[in-house]
Amino acid sequence: MTVELLDYAEALTAYEPVLGLEVHVELNTASKMFCGCANAFGAEPNTQTCPVCLGLPGSLPVVNGKAIESAIRIGLALNCGIAEWCRFARKNYFYPDMTKDFQTSQYDEPIAHDGWIDIEVDGETFRIEIERAHMEEDAGKLVHAGGTTGRIGDAEYSLVDYNRAGTPLIEIVTRPITGLGAKAPQVAKAYVSFLRDLMLALGVSDVRMEQGSLRCDANVSLMPVGATRFGLRTETKNVNSLRSIERALTYEIQRQAAVLAGGGRVHQETRHWHEEGYTTSGRSKEQAEDYRYFPEPDLVPVAPSREWVEQLRATLPELPGLRRSRLQAEWGFTDLELQDVVNAGALDVIEATVAAGCAPQFARKWWLTELARRANEAGVELAELAITPAQVAEVQSLVEAGTVNDKLARQVIDGVLAGEGTPAEVVTGRGLAVVSDDGALTAAVDAAIAANPDVAARIRDGKLQAVGALIGAVMKEMRGQADAARVRELVLERLA
């Protein structure tokens, strides 16, 4: 599809982006929010349901205590106040994947409110104010079949899987975020990355974005530079990767800027993100009153005691900012080196690689070079690559043992990613081990000397920098598997 876009730099000279981010986190409780059905991903469709989560007449919900505990811990970690008394409400509109046609959520009385976190991007700190973090239940899932895109537009029919309906969900909502300028998409990506790290540290969710257990609704509007009144916003729904959050916001800023620059008007609506790199219109965006909220009559209010809240505060783990400072000190990374690691989303995998026995500088080297390139080519996050931190550590141990050199190690990584087994199995299967046998190396060295008499003559004359040419010839002949250090020794011995 063809949509007019304004150059990004040009858009930012005329308009200031205003962000609002709504992040949904599915909790990893054993059961659902209001019933005893299993809360697990990947079961056969419609096998984790009961009258409560299906909303059948006469069924009564009961709140999940573990979900409330997780909500309080999340709120505390976000520097929020915890409500002394709050309750659930019914949010009404047509849900094709919720049989009761309303969502049990919280409206004007969230369990956590008025928080903040600081995000660092390129050495600059941005404070993100949290308006609320409230409890609710997730909807089911529609599967659009018979088309080519998996979307309803070209589907022949749709199926409904109610397994996810009723899953405990925390929605974290920011206040409008201003003053970001051209870094707005980067800050949004860093913010969601921070939340993902935080939820993992808290142990409240697996935050598998590809499975939908953490997803972001990204609101953005533009206002002319110097203005004080916000523009009309769009909400790009359910963006489920860090890379896509940055790309979707960049696209929307360019699209909205083109509309405004052309004298048009931005429509307040939801939009869908397509991984090909664009958004499309969804539906007009309702105001809160359009949802006809009213208190949930079947659930009692939640009133966590201050003693319980303080007990939960004492369980908070090392938070991401403190963790990064500790790891930087342990690894000896400079600020720039650590920032590169964070920007690449590599902190977790490097920490796990170091824990598997790899030196920090080598763990960083492999993840930020070879593996980052492969992840970028595949359009996935580093953690989604088909290689584990322990396997990366094993690749480095093979290098240090002299079994392979760096060039061969890249082929070992290729083999692991292709599913050929462990690094050691790939070395054996592909015959990649470095050749250090003097007999084979001497024959290759003699052949290289005979083929390059002028180079040999320069070496005999004391011009040792020419040795590299003969080493290169031997390495080429032996497909990069020669022990380069031993080849150098043999060349000098033969030409002494």
Structure description:
- With 496 residues, the chain is of the alpha+beta class.
- The protein folds into 3 domains: 306 residues, no CATH class; 111 residues, no CATH class; 57 residues, Arc Repressor Mutant, subunit A.
- The mean pLDDT is 90.
Report the radius of gyration as a whole number of Å.
28 Å
Strand order of the largest sheet: 2-5-6-9-1-10-11-12-13
Question: What's the domain count?
Answer: 3
How many helix segments?
Answer: 17
Terminal Cα separation, in Å? Answer: 69 Å
Low-confidence runs? none
The rough form would be described as elongated
Structural class: alpha+beta
- Report the sheet-strand fraction: 15-25%
State the major sheet: 9 strands, mixed
Number of strands: 14
Mean pLDDT: 90
Helical amount: 25-40%
Topology (elements, then pairings):
Layout: H1 8-14, E1 15-26, H2 65-77, E2 81-82, E3 89-92, E4 102-105, E5 112-121, E6 124-137, E7 141-145, E8 157-161, E9 168-174, H3 184-202, E10 214-224, E11 234-239, H4 242-261, E12 269-274, E13 278-284, E14 294-295, H5 306-313, H6 320-331, H7 335-343, H8 347-355, H9 360-368, H10 370-378, H11 389-400, H12 406-417, H13 423-430, H14 438-451, H15 453-460, H16 467-477, H17 484-494
Parallel strand pairs: 11-12
Antiparallel strand pairs: 1-9, 1-10, 2-5, 3-4, 3-14, 5-6, 6-9, 7-8, 10-11, 12-13
Helix pairs in contact: 3-4, 8-9, 8-11, 9-10, 11-12, 12-13, 14-16, 14-17, 16-17
